[in-house]
Amino acid sequence: MNVVAVFDIGKTNKKVFLFNENYQIVWEQSVVFPETVDEDGFPCEDITSLRNWIVYRLAEMEALEDYNLKAINFSTYGASFVYVDKEGNNLTPLYNYLKPYPELLKEKFYSKYKGEEKFATKTASPVLGSLNSGMQIYRLKEENPTVFNTVNYCLHLPQYLSSLLTGQFFTDITSVGCHTNLWNFKKMKYHKWLKKEDIITKIAPMHSAEETLPLLQNNAISVGIGLHDSSSALIPYIINFTEPFVLLSTGTWVITMNPFNNQPLTFEELQDDCLCFLHYQGKPVKASRLFAGNEHEIQTKRLADHFGVSIDTYKEVGYDKDIIKQLRGINLNSAPSQYQKEILRQFSFENRNLNDFKSYEIAYHQLLLDIVAQQIISTNLVIHNSPVKKVFVDGGFSKNPIFMNLLAEAYPKMEVYAASMAQASALGAALAIHKNWNPKPIQNDLIDLKFYKH
Q: If you count DSSP H runs as helices and E runs as strands, how many of each does the chain have, helices first?
């Protein structure tokens, strides 16, 4: 059986999958490594363990008698650089993007390049410290010039992992185009600060995410250059649907992604937690973020404590339109609309008195009403002035009937679907290099959809 392998590297879980030609998972392995620390004692990825695990798993997959390995790709978390010498050896630890950024260095940088507002707008990058991965390169240059001078290339993590198998160094647009401070979205090229700081020569040449390179020891196996995981998760939708849509990717954060909105980002939108990233074909995708999954987790714990029930009782609560009608005190058919921007900035439910609710079910419906009120504002920031016809929701909230029904009611002129597929970011990385290994056409049933009527 012909298969493609995808290494899907998260901050916590490292996984590898084999997909067959119909994009079904036929084999998988996963591991969790303990973190190590960098020279400042801050926790970071153990890059040696990761590298050894990939080499070990590759040898194991090549030896599997039931499978014929045709191609390999990578999907990994973003905002992380590996600095390599000419031989491809890493020169520093894999610094953690959660590491606090020195305030003085940040001020020095932004004052040099026209201030936070102008710079953030141009690069579609909210000011996020180490999460702006370009700032990590600037920090290395300023704080450790000796090491910086020996750097041949600064590689984002997916491209570093790919280079281990190909011996070649490239840059991928999905990693560069996601809140990195590296890309000028107005001119659609690298920002000029990279040239001024003599960093541009240390950025590897750009390579298409759809083209592959030969595996070092076996030319018959094609290797992709890897993708940023959030961009990768969007690929199955871009391939399957041509009609304009938005995707709500729900987990700890709810990220609304709109590949059909090419309006330039404003500073106001940046302040409302919007950003732009580039998908695997180099087109901008406008996105907004809301910390809704995290809030749901906090408040369901609070509800469980108050009502003396188990923590996951909410999973048994169905959608009850009479409770919604009662809570709103208004006609059910009028979609919520009079929400102010202030709602976006704070979660209403945390200030509610739980003694006001007669039952857990009623209180839980109110929690979802409050979350969806915020979600509508967040999602509207990126739907604004674009021809969206469909709304897809994947992840945790796609399985929540109250969330889905309230969302469908809020968008009566659109089709709202709960979407599910196994391992979206790994599947996206496999699909990106489809033409290089798979003779079959891509089937259009990769995503399971459930329609919600308003």
A: 16, 20
